[in-house]
Each structure stands twice: as structure tokens, then as C-alpha cells.
Amino acid sequence: MAFLADPAAALPGAGRAAPGAIPALTLEGVEVRYPGAARPALSVDHLTIGRGERVAVIGPSGSGKTTLLRLLNGTLAAERGEIFVLGKRLVPGRRLPREQRRRIGMIFQDFALVERASVFDNVLFGRLGHAHPWLSLIGHFSDRDRDIAGAAVREVGLLEQLVQRADALSGGQRQRVAIARVLAQEPEIILADEPVSNLDPALTNDILGLLTRASERRGATLVMALHQPRLATAHAGRVIGIGGGRIVLDEAAARLSDDALRSVYGRPFAVSGGAAK
């Protein structure tokens, strides 16, 4: 099977958006409150993320990182406020249209693969938003869909595992499959919820490097919830810190300081490592 040599070249509009383009993501006066909670899970006065940005969202467990990502992919509705994705307002309680869903890719910490399916088939599922709705139900995909899926497998370095079942792979390989599936989707926005928290620490930089390089080649906006500030500074251009359900930090990664992290974690924290003793 011959696959595209450069999968990014197949993407329409690959490369960074022109200056003045509509932002990828905008939140205005957004509040989310879970039933029975004493305070909002997340409250955002204003947040804009431009097209092509690489953003890391950091904060303690339960601070609101996952809630933010769920708002952005349309699986959670805000109690109040407005959210715009690629210039289109999300309507609370209404599922995103198919065309808009395929423009947003999601990577999960638990991989969310079809365990009994092969690497190639898992990645090919990323093309469901592009395939004919009825034909995809019977597993029919076009040659172009198959080429793009195969190129994504090659890009993440898993051609040798192409026909292996997902449940036979290591954790690092499984996350590579999840990344390839999103790349095959050809999204304009990639959201990643703690994508390396279930991996061996030795693999974290490789996986995040793969993800950030792939998104940058495509000009895709990347928003990653990460649990380690040092990973944020190494792999993102901008860091957003959430503490107590509110954005308390929004800074260029290159300028992030230990003092700034105190506002996020409430204690001394070193950018280059873990919490100060």
C-alpha cells in the first residue's frame, strides 16, 4: 500500500493563518457550575486563542483544565457566556454540526482506541467526519481516506505495527495511534487532555514533540492540558494557568517564572523541575 509522503501537504490551507484572521477560540463571560457545587468549576471573563498557536493549560488537579477543553470541543455546555470556535458560536444544548466537529480533534489521556481494531483501522476512524455518512457505517472509505490514514501512521512511526491490534501495543505506541487518528482527521484545532499523564516519564518529551511538530507543520491550533510546568515551557509558546476555576496566569512560555507559577499552584514551583522544597 502506497501512502502520501507528506501528509501535511494534503491539508487545505496548511501553514499559519494570515494576520487579522478570525481567532481559533474565543470565550466571553463563560461560567460552568456542576450540580451541587458551591462555586463555579470554571469562570472565564475573556480568553482568545489565535490560529496556529501552541498553548499549554496548567494547574492543579480539579482546577478546571479538563472542563475548559470540554467546553471547547462542545461536549459541555456553559451555564452562561459565549464560546466561539473558528468564528462560529457554540449553541448550548445543541450538538456541533458534523462539518464543525471534524475541524476539532481530541486526544485523551486514556487513548480512547478501539482495542480489538488494528492500528490502521483506528487511524482510519479519524476520517469518519470526511467519509460519506452511510458508506462509513459499512466500513467503506475512499482511496484518499486510506492514503491519508496511512500517511499519518507513517508520520508517527508505526508502519511496522500497521496491522497489529491496539490492545497489543505499549502505552507510548497507543498514544501515537491516538495522535495519528487526529492527524488523519485533518482538524484545524487539536485539543489534548493530559496526553502524557499515563505514559512513562521517559516518553513524555518524545510524544509531546511529535504532537507539537505535527500541529505546527499543519498550522493547526494546539491546546494541551499538562500537569508539569516544565513540559509546558518546553513544548508550548503560551502558557495559561488555571487556579480555583479561574485563569490566573496567561504568559509567553519563554517568560514564565517561578513566581508566576505560585499564582497557579499556591506554593513555590520551579519552572525547570517540580515543587520547591
Helix/strand layout:
Layout: E1 25-32, E2 42-49, E3 54-58, H1 65-72, E4 80-85, E5 88-89, H2 98-101, E6 104-107, H3 119-124, H4 133-137, H5 143-155, H6 171-185, E7 189-193, H7 201-218, E8 221-225, H8 229-235, E9 238-243, E10 246-252, H9 258-265
Parallel strand pairs: 3-8, 3-9, 6-7, 7-8
Antiparallel strand pairs: 1-2, 1-4, 4-5, 9-10
Helix pairs in contact: 5-6, 6-7
Core attributes:
277 residues, alpha/beta, 9 helices, 30% helix, globular
Commentary on this structure:
By secondary structure, the chain is an alpha/beta fold. It is 30% helix and 20% strand. The chain has helices spanning 65-72, 98-101, 119-124, 133-137, 143-155, 171-185, 201-218, 229-235, 258-265, and strands at residues 25-32, 42-49, 54-58, 80-85, 88-89, 104-107, 189-193, 221-225, 238-243, 246-252. The strands form two sheets. It has a six-stranded mixed beta sheet, sandwiched between helices. A four-stranded antiparallel beta sheet has the order 2-1-4-5, covered by helices on one side. 40% of the residues are buried. The model is unreliable at 9-17 (pLDDT under 50).
Shape: globular
Distance between the termini: 55 Å
Poorly predicted tracts of residues: 9-17
What amount of the residues lies in strands? 15-25%
Structural class: alpha/beta
Give the overall average pLDDT.
88
* Beta strand count: 10
Q: What percent of the residues sit in helical stretches (DSSP H or I)?
A: 25-40%
Separate helix tally: 9
SSE arrangement, N to C? EEEHEEHEHHHHEHEHEEH
The strands making up the biggest β-sheet line up spatially as 6-7-8-3-9-10
Largest sheet: 6 strands, mixed
Q: What is Rg? A: 19 Å
